[in-house]
Design a protein that fits this description.
homodimer, alpha+beta, 60s Ribosomal Protein L30, Chain: A, Phosphoribosyl-aminoimidazole Synthetase, Chain A, domain 2, 2 domains, seven-stranded mixed β-sheet, four-stranded mixed β-sheet, 9 helices, 14 strands
Chain lengths: 342, 342
């Protein structure tokens, strides 16, 4: 996150006013002096409500949308701006697409410190740059105090499909499940920050873009049957949703959870398998590609590993096997362990 | 707005719970029983975070985003769902594009009556159908009570460009300005509903899609220099933004304002030229095409008319000429007359 000083004089408008969302000269000031200063590119600079994208020469496109309402706005390892870019970039990557263009919809609450907005925008800009995507259009609304929570962000993205997957066949018997790193950090980091909990070391969110990793897998000739990032509902929910007509067997000991995260979860009554991550994914690949795929993943993160296999079954199920031979069936939670996590 | 009865039993969950946004089984229930029931199409039905769009065979795409925070959610002539679809459809149409695919990002406030959500979704569905667009991906977040205002909606859309315009040349000396109908109704309708004001007749918002009108103009061979819908900031702001290096002369008497809207504005201290509309646009066309374009517009709405001309000038300006010979220069407002109008 590169934070130069905010270009809007904070003495005159230290906080967001309703007029900043009115579409008049104050809105224009915000857009030109703050947003364009950080996010500038030729498409955004047209400042039209809509933008014409460069010709896509017969590429097939993927599209995705996500709103971000995480509380607090800033947390160890990230902030709402970084999350909003990573989340949508990751959803496109999970479609086998190379993320290209993002839109940015801001709902600001009257009274938000302008300096906080500046930090969020800087983070959006730095993350977009790191992911190789452009913010091409935006929209800013301001709601009266007490009808928001600082900043809500919607990012919607399009990208060019590199690897087409059939959503109806997410896995086949014999496939293996690969996980790209440890799980549970994002949710615990948010909760700790929100509730003022302190652990021996600061637990940092895993918030990060996954398009680089997916690109590396595709470059290596891997053709995943399906990919899923492990956000709301965590690893367990992602697998339950994918395993609609197969039986997945997971080895509990193969799923890395940092010791500090594990203790925090125990203390807080959370199951790390259901805790949201923001930079973790699973890939379902044919057994023949497992080794090559794992090599690519381990290069990015040594914690990556093969966590399970897909078996034939009449009805979908996900079973977690412990080293002691016990088996536990994983299912969808009715809600979520923590609200406002993303 | 077609409102069948809500498919989710209201006795069990009469209002939105935080768990509806948790990504678990309650979220799934909402999506499958409510959203898919109304918005169903093969792309949305995949229920993936991202969706692969059908091949676009070398079409150039336009993209736009908008968040909607209008208060109240329901008003004469429309509601937040209709607005969210029309607004984004209209922004694409203003790019000379045929709107095709929309995403729908919902930020729901805990405690929102499920039945209100159902009405909004029905309205989104009916309006999308009327506009010929598909909702292809969505996202639902729930924020705790006191951090939202019922429903906030983001719609982001893509569409195929039919007529490419140069944003740097919005108008040329000699061009004429055409307006597609009366102005000021949306803002006044919202304010009246919000403040409980009563006029002799109910003033209805002009909220409506404009892609049909733009399609008809293009079908007739009209090649507008620029088009702009008259939302936040109204007719005056749109013209001031377009006239960055030309002088626009408007005839006040040519700009239709309904008598009741005019009186309401006088009473409330509003200028109808700055009041937001949600189904009104201007087209800047070369003089040679003016008559043909006006004919198309008048077929859609007899109130359409030619309201001004573009003159040569060193510096951009918009001047309103009255029938009595007085001239008034229009400029950007610093904020907006009414917050939360869209």
């Amino acid at each position: 996150m590169i934070v130069a000083s905010c270009p809007i004089p904070l003495t005159r408008y230290p906080t967001v006013q309703l007029a900043h969302g009115g579409g008049g000269s104050l809105t224009r000031k915000l857009i030109e002096e703050m947003f364009l200063a950080v996010l500038d590119n030729p498409l955004l600079r047209t400042l039209q409500d809509g933008v014409v994208l460069p010709e896509t020469s017969n590429q097939q496109l993927a599209m995705t949308t996500d709103s971000y309402v995480v509380h607090p706005l800033f947390f160890p390892g990230g902030d709402i701006g970084k999350m909003a870019v990573c989340g949508t970039v990751n959803d496109l990557a999970m479609c086998g697409a190379e993320p290209q263009y993002l839109t940015l919809g801001l709902i600001l609450e009257e009274g938000l410190p302008i300096d906080d907005l500046w930090k969020v925008i800087c983070s959006v800009g730095a993350t977009a740059k790191a992911c190789g995507v452009q913010i091409v259009a935006g929209d800013t609304k301001v709601v009266d105090k007490g009808h928001g929570d600082g900043v809500y962000i919607n990012t919607t993205g399009v990208g060019a499909v590199r690897h087409l997957m059939d959503p109806a066949v997410a896995m086949k018997p014999g496939d293996v499940i690969l996980l790209c790193g440890d799980v549970g950090r994002h949710g615990v980091a948010i909760l700790a920050e929100r509730e003022g909990l302190e652990f021996q070391t600061t637990i940092e969110s895993d918030c990060a873009p996954l398009n680089g990793l997916v690109g590396a897998l595709l470059d290596a000739g891997i053709t995943p049957r399906s990919m899923r990032d492990l956000t709301r509902g965590g690893l367990a929910t992602a697998l339950v949703e994918l395993a609609s007509d197969c039986e997945v067997e997971l080895r509990a000991s193969a799923i890395p959870v940092e010791a500090e995260v594990g203790s925090a979860c125990e203390l807080l009554g959370l199951d790390p398998l259901y805790v949201a991550n923001e930079g973790r994914m699973i890939a379902v690949v044919a057994k023949a590609q497992a080794e090559a795929a794992l090599e690519v993943m381990k290069k990015a993160n040594p914690d990556a590993g093969m966590i399970g296999v897909v078996k034939e079954a009449a009805r979908g199920s996900v079973t977690l096997l412990s080293d002691f031979g016990t088996a536990r069936r994983l299912d969808l939670l009715s809600g979520e362990q923590l609200p406002r996590i993303c």
